[in-house]
Write a structure and sequence with these properties.
This protein is an alpha/beta fold and about 260 residues long. It contains eight helices and ten strands. Strands 1-10-9-6-2-3-5 form a seven-stranded parallel beta sheet. A three-stranded antiparallel beta sheet has the order 4-8-7. α7 links the parallel β9 and β10.
Length: about 260
């Protein structure tokens, strides 16, 4: 695991965007195969997406040969709802870059057969060649995608029940009313993420300090599903100074020295 610590969330986000752009360009220079990327939602990736949009506008990178799969979506929320992850992704990324519509994949939380939707998603990821890179965030309880504590570290895309804690945290997007936050979601599994050749987790702000500590220093455990990245050979964490407050001084110094 490599932890990149920057002074501000903006600097860490810009680092991640430039890293992703460089990876897309690196693959494009070698092959005509598409670059397959996993994408996340939440407030954290907004600045990374804004920087990627800037890079596309400046002609520094193109998403024309990128295929994306989002990590999760609420169950039962209309796609047109402003807080659906469909709406979020279009607003903050897809409307501002040149990725072809047919390359965009987001789980359908309104599918008649949710299990079939999840199985088809795993198949589509495989058919696209698997993830070159997965960009994720982390929940305050250490969840990755919507893999709540005690999800299997071997889990795959499936229907998940959201914990009360997560619904309370996410209620800030639903007028502060946790009852308006759907109680279920479709989510890629932990293993869907760790199958990616490379993973970048964005972790910003003091509210994520405990989750970051558990992810980096804690045991690799289903209690903090993001800690599964400890077993990944190419996992990055991009974080700001505010998020590292719970790390041991020596852990902090180690990563500051290297990255
Ligand atoms: C939700 C999403 C996660 C995201 C997390 C953190 O639970 N399912 O994918 O990482 O929120 O969100 P935020 O970036 O807003 O803190």
């Amino acid at each position: 695991m490599k932890v990149v610590i920057r002074n501000s969330a903006l600097e860490a986000s810009v680092w991640a965007a430039h890293y992703i752009a460089a990876k897309i360009n690196e693959k494009a220079a070698k092959t005509s195969e598409p670059f397959v990327i996993g994408l996340c939602t939440g407030s954290t990736p907004i600045e990374t997406y804004a920087e990627l949009a800037k890079l596309v506008k400046a002609g520094k990178v193109s998403f024309k040969n990128v295929i994306s799969f989002n990590m999760d979506e609420y169950v039962g929320l209309p796609e047109s709802h402003p807080e659906s992850y469909h709406s979020f992704m279009h607003k903050y990324l897809f409307d501002n870059i040149d990725e072809p519509k047919e390359n965009i994949h987001i789980l359908n939380g309104n599918a008649k057969d949710l299990d079939a939707e999840c199985a088809a998603y795993e198949q589509a990821i495989k058919a696209a060649g698997g993830f070159d890179l997965f960009l994720g965030g982390i929940g305050e309880d250490g969840h990755i995608a919507f893999n709540e504590p005690y999800s299997s570290l071997n889990s795959r895309t499936r229907v998940v029940d959201l914990t009360t804690d997560t619904r309370i945290v996410n209620s800030r997007f639903f007028g502060g009313d946790m009852n308006k936050v759907p109680s279920q979601a479709l989510s890629v599994g932990v293993a869907t993420v760790t199958d990616a050749k490379e993973v970048i987790l964005l972790v910003m702000g003091p509210k994520k300090a405990r989750a970051l500590k558990d992810c980096v220093e804690g045991p690799c455990s289903h209690k903090c599903t993001a800690s599964a990245l400890q077993l990944h050979e190419n996992a990055w964490i991009a974080c700001d100074e505010a998020a590292v407050g719970e790390l041991m001084v020596n852990t902090y110094r180690y990563f500051k020295d290297l990255y």
